């Protein structure tokens, strides 16, 4: 896996640097000065990075497998800032040192179209980055933001390609023009694959809702079965799916949820969904027989990825229990007797989702359940408060700890506290894995 990750990073660097290397081959326009050439190089690098951004969110399985999709999205987010900075510096250098290159006016009615295209690309990219980074602050609804993001990125990219080809600097020679057009074509095909081919595949493989069951704490179990096809392939316990209900797979209204059931239960799959917002708040209204679409499975948060572990520790809070449910259900089905500790934080005893099933699973697994309550009922003998180093030390022996794999999933303050505690206990980073329930 590490080798595959390194190979992908090398491919990324190649994709970003290759256009510059090729553009410098053959007939090159006479160099002006260092700063001029530097500005051009930054422009091309920024543009190449923006192009690769499409690939990062295309959910390409071979790419996401070594890192996990959350890491890829994080990468996408930080690289967007770097690409924007490169393009801004490209523009800034020209503005400070070569004002004549920016044309006599910025009025789009009079300015050369290729310069207007460049300025439009800059504004569109900046808007795409700003609305993503500060979406919550700007009170942008998630679904609306996704539509806007796809539109801003696609239009920005088209404007940037037009700018480069229109200016023709470094790309005037026919062979280089062909290169740029081919690179652009690859990016367009990627877009078509993500927005047309993949949703088409989902449309051809619908799922049916077979049960909607209330659980504790405003949570619903939603069960699906494949409708006229074999169902999920290659699903490992703990992975997640993008789910579309009451909508088209061509829309952007899909939501990610961990699959709470085990691969051994296939073709049926179940989700545990907490009613929190616009989409999740309506799960209780869904009726058996309704159609659903899935893009799945994704994710690296799974016991199957660490076959060498002597046992497992789950440190979860609230609805973060769902991927652990999948892993525990799977271990029970496989009669896997490796020891498991589940530290499960909740506000009150009444809010502990799947509490009865977890208790029942103890008879089929070597499972130690440690409930941690913020507001315990009277007479509570168990743990209270939050996950701390001391709490973990009370339950896990120092000899065993390094051989156990730790899965963390829950509210960010909880997972941050658990990560800190495990670090203080000397756990190596590769033995601790965190799943975030928010991708952007
Ligand atoms: C890998 C993963 C696994 C998850 N597993 C579960 C699970 O098993 N059970 C569960 O209840 N929840 C799970 N979630 C969280 C779930 O996806 C969000 O709670 C849900 O999408 C919120 O949608 P909403 O419209 O109801 O809420 P809103 O109030 O509209 O949104 C609340 C917040 O959720 C995020 N969000 C909204 N829509 C999306 C979307 N389409 N994609 C990504 N994030 C979104 C946004 O940050 C938003 O601000 C998981 C999330 C991820 C990333």
From TrEMBL:
<feature type="domain" description="FAD-binding FR-type">
    <location>
        <begin position="202"/>
        <end position="304"/>
    </location>
</feature>
<keyword id="KW-0812">Transmembrane</keyword>
<feature type="transmembrane region" description="Helical">
    <location>
        <begin position="34"/>
        <end position="57"/>
    </location>
</feature>
<keyword id="KW-0472">Membrane</keyword>
<dbReference type="InterPro" id="IPR039261">
    <property type="entry name" value="FNR_nucleotide-bd"/>
</dbReference>
<dbReference type="InterPro" id="IPR013130">
    <property type="entry name" value="Fe3_Rdtase_TM_dom"/>
</dbReference>
<dbReference type="Pfam" id="PF01794">
    <property type="entry name" value="Ferric_reduct"/>
</dbReference>
<dbReference type="InterPro" id="IPR001433">
    <property type="entry name" value="OxRdtase_FAD/NAD-bd"/>
</dbReference>
<dbReference type="Pfam" id="PF00175">
    <property type="entry name" value="NAD_binding_1"/>
</dbReference>
<feature type="transmembrane region" description="Helical">
    <location>
        <begin position="78"/>
        <end position="97"/>
    </location>
</feature>
<dbReference type="InterPro" id="IPR017938">
    <property type="entry name" value="Riboflavin_synthase-like_b-brl"/>
</dbReference>
<feature type="transmembrane region" description="Helical">
    <location>
        <begin position="147"/>
        <end position="172"/>
    </location>
</feature>
<dbReference type="GO" id="GO:0016491">
    <property type="term" value="F:oxidoreductase activity"/>
</dbReference>
<dbReference type="InterPro" id="IPR050415">
    <property type="entry name" value="MRET"/>
</dbReference>
<feature type="transmembrane region" description="Helical">
    <location>
        <begin position="178"/>
        <end position="196"/>
    </location>
</feature>
<protein>
    <submittedName>
        <fullName>Ferric reductase-like transmembrane domain-containing protein</fullName>
    </submittedName>
</protein>
<keyword id="KW-1133">Transmembrane helix</keyword>
<feature type="transmembrane region" description="Helical">
    <location>
        <begin position="117"/>
        <end position="135"/>
    </location>
</feature>
<dbReference type="GO" id="GO:0016020">
    <property type="term" value="C:membrane"/>
</dbReference>
<dbReference type="InterPro" id="IPR017927">
    <property type="entry name" value="FAD-bd_FR_type"/>
</dbReference>
